[in-house]
Amino acid sequence: MDSTSSPSPSSSSPFDLVSSALGRYIPRGGGAAGAGPADAEGERTTRHRLPDDPAAGRQDQILGAVNLDRDLRITRCNLEAPVFAGLDAEIGSPFVDLLPRGDVPTVTRRLRQVLETGDAHVARIQRLRRGDGSELVVSMSILPAALPQEGLTVSVIAMARRLHLYAAETAIGTSLDIGETAQSLARSLLAWGDVAAIDLDFAVWTGEGVTGQPQGRIRLRRAALVPDRAWPDGYVTPGDDLPSDASRLLAQAVRRDDAPQAIVIPDREAVERVLGSPRVMRALVPGDRSAGVACIPLVLEGAPPVVLGVAEVWRRADCPFRDSELLDLQELVARTAHHVDLARQHQREHTQVLALQRRLLPRTGGDTIEIASVYQPATPDSAGVGGDWVNSFPLPDGRTALVVGDVVGHGLGAAATMGQLSTEARALLSAGLAPDEVLEHLDETVTLLDDAESGLAAGYSALGSTCCIALYDPVSHRVALSSAGHLPPVLVSPDGHAGPLVVRPHPGLGAEFALREPFDVHTYDAPPGSLLALYTDGLVEDPAVSIDEGIGRLADAVSTVHPWDSLQQAARHVVSALAPVHQRDDVTLLLARMIGYRKGDTATWRLPARYDAPARARSYVAALLRQWRTRDDTRDKVLLLVSELVTNAVRFATGPITVRLIRAGHGVLCEVGDTGNGRPRLGGGGLLDDGGRGLHIVHRLTTRWGVRWTDTGKVVWAEITR
Q1: Which of 200, 325, 346, 603 could form a disulfide with 176 if both were Cys (CB 3.0 to 4.6 A apart)?
Q2: Separation CA 513–CA 520 (nearest Å)
Q3: pLDDT at position 49, please?
Q4: Contact at 8 Å (CB) between 265 and 332?
Q5: pLDDT tier, 323 (very low <50, low <70, confident <90, very high otherwise)
Q6: pTM to 2 decimal places
């Protein structure tokens, strides 16, 4: 390693100022740069270990300085303290050669930024790579030179033991992702060894509950491993389960005498003797140079204490663990075990919410509509899984409901509200309520849930949540839609024209009384071959563009879907093309391809409400059933059903009567509409009771029947299996 002579007192560059400070602490002739081979060998045991005592600390905790030109090559170097021994900081070599490979892009960007702006970047926790493969933890500052053409100066401070513990704990607690938390802990442990691994109880990894007394077979999964390199065949890498005998050995080692405690296997012979089988050796020993290992349990304090997993730090034979280092390892792991448990709890909540949302996703469409959906949760660095939900389901009267919503907030509070709103919407739509009436009920529900005393989601507010409901009628080929503050759906016509549907803006669910507006029902033509896209804002929101432009890009993407394309693959393609890589919100997309009934599968008649209406209806229906070649027993049931429903309409309603017959799948659907507003109910009387006799017959003949309401009255529908 090259070293400069004593700096000139008149020099004012950052490098010379740091070197002047170094001259007050480094004993002349005591630098590692001038050490011969024998001296270097003697220093090997102290190259990458943290100091034990204050006397050693005064020499190990030393500043170093490296001057770089504008090409980031080393022009001067002052790394004479013994702690920097092994750093190959040769004059003319790139500074990034001292960095671990994964840190090169980030540090290079910081160096360039200081060159361009002249603003210093101070106190970055960084690792420097020695020639023997070990690493040194330092606090690194990047200082601009007085003149831009002189480049910059990088000063480094070898991390003191307490400073490293504090920095490590701070870094580990920055993420709620269990994999990132384990990886941060492993990187911090690397200061004490050559290889660090974190193996977690499988229940911790999946977010399940853990207890002090594990039941059944012990199962460990590797959650983190550093450094990043090519490992021997058979060695367990992140994401893999440890072999059962290896899991058992590690668990027994750290739970001796029923008390979790750290253990050290000091040399290769002891490792082979303890691990025993070649299979376990291949799984746990990272290489031929690894001789000793310290195993430290991740313990969650309690009565009894709970072992979350095991941290392993491996060293070469020439670097045995000292007692003080074991205390440091145990202190760091003990300080950070609760971060692992927090990540476990977050993982559990994330998994529960994700399972609920995926359960709400549509399963299939039907004969009259094709459904495809994609749900993509927010990335781990976000606030958590949100309240986006989408659902589609066939209604008993042959229509299909498409529902999409976005509940305010993240986590279990949003998930509970999401599940309640989704269930309520499905129940109300199946009962025959119109979309605007359903939104009125959901609006009231959100208002009630905001009451922290009586609401089910105490302490959580869902005010401002949005919802959009679309009902597709496969006979009329029309879509009835109501929206509560949700972004407008995109409709692609069969000729390829795409654009958002015009929907009047609405403040959303649970708005203050003064801001409440009625929910409108908009009706749109959706001929066979049309494609309807319902989505949440995470798909189209981008800070760089307006929301209208984001919706326009969605319309362009959906318009490229060919009628012969697989709808599920098309939905995935649209999401991958539009969703940001690091999304801060959930992304949900529902695509619905309209098919409808064939013209010959439906028939509609309009009759006056007169005494002869039942006879005329039977005549029309009988002719159609013969054309459909319906079986005799089915034809008799349908004729009796039509007669009873039309008779009931004539008796209790006024105005014209509409009779519609639909051949659907394995059944025949009969609908009779009138202008009455009374709800038919199946009473407790028998067949001989005059009031309700017709409904008892309808109930006996059909597989299901019900009522839906229209702007002009009601429709009684009933289905008979063919």
Answers
A1: 346
A2: 17
A3: 41
A4: no
A5: confident
A6: 0.55
